[in-house]
């Protein structure tokens, strides 16, 4: 993957993209921080560390996890191009609340915390996009809490994860959707069954069993790492 060297040529745009800024703001962003090229399974930031940088994801996918003192792991969410990491910690001047690790070759732009805060003060659109990014983090946290505490079965928990992910993919592919999406979506699934279990709060063996059941019911199909959710409406029903 060639290193992207300019924000001005970036093709990642859309209503959910932090970098959806006007030319003047993009030029300022282009001159800030530095690009980082990371391989698969490399850390971007670590839980408990001081927030020295804010990271804008340019390419690739990253998983956010948090852990308990006894080593149990919870996968919070997956982020991709246009997302921002470390924003809440930078604003609160608190330590990072999660660990971010790449799932595939990834490129990010690292911006010093103080420089990013000045960037927010200078451009209203940057502040707006930052607020929207934190709102999406909040929405994801609520979904995770609801899934873990209120879902009645393993099938409901895993269906919730798949529906959330499929919805994010569809939102990125259809900027002018007006709330209406196709009933099926196909995308690359970078997570192992164990990692899906960490996200759904169930075991790896249970993930394998539930996916097999969904496949037999015609709700999804897997071809290598490509996942095809064939009936989003029914999966939403399973998640309720």
UniProtKB/TrEMBL annotation:
Boundaries of every HTH crp-type domain copy: 152-233
Keyword annotations from UniProtKB, A to Z: DNA-binding, Transcription, Transcription regulation
InterPro entries membership: cNMP-bd_dom (IPR000595), cNMP-bd_dom_sf (IPR018490), Env_Response_Regulators (IPR050397), HTH_CRP (IPR012318), RmlC-like_jellyroll (IPR014710), WH-like_DNA-bd_sf (IPR036388), WH_DNA-bd_sf (IPR036390)
GO cellular component entries: cytosol
Keyword Magnesium: no
Domain Cyclic nucleotide-binding: 17-137
Claim: Membrane is one of the keywords in the record: no
GO MF terms held by the record: DNA binding; DNA-binding transcription factor activity
Protein name, per record: CRP/FNR family transcriptional regulator, anaerobic regulatory protein
Pfam families the UniProt entry points to: cNMP_binding, HTH_Crp_2
């Amino acid at each position: 993957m060639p290193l992207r060297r300019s924000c001005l040529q970036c093709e990642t745009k859309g209503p959910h993209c932090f970098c959806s800024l006007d030319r003047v703001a993009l030029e300022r962003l282009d001159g800030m921080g530095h690009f980082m090229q990371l391989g698969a399974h490399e850390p971007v930031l670590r839980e408990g560390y001081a927030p020295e940088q804010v990271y804008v994801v340019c390419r690739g996918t990253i998983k956010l996890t948090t852990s308990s003192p006894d080593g149990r792991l919870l996968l919070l969410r997956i982020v991709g191009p246009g997302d921002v990491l470390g924003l809440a910690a930078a604003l609160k001047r608190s330590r990072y609340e999660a660990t971010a690790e790449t799932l595939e070759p990834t490129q990010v732009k690292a911006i010093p915390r103080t420089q990013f805060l000045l960037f927010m003060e200078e451009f209203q659109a940057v502040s707006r996009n930052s607020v929207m990014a934190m709102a999406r983090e909040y929405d994801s946290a609520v979904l995770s809490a609801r899934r873990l505490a209120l879902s009645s079965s393993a099938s409901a928990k895993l269906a919730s994860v798949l529906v959330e992910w499929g919805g994010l993919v569809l939102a990125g592919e259809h900027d002018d959707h007006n709330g209406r999406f196709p009933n099926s979506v196909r995308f690359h699934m970078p997570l192992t069954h164990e990692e899906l279990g960490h996200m759904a709060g169930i075991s790896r063996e249970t993930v394998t069993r539930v996916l097999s059941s969904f496949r037999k019911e015609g709700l999804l199909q897997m071809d290598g790492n490509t996942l095809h959710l064939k009936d989003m409406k029914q999966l939403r029903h399973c998640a309720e």
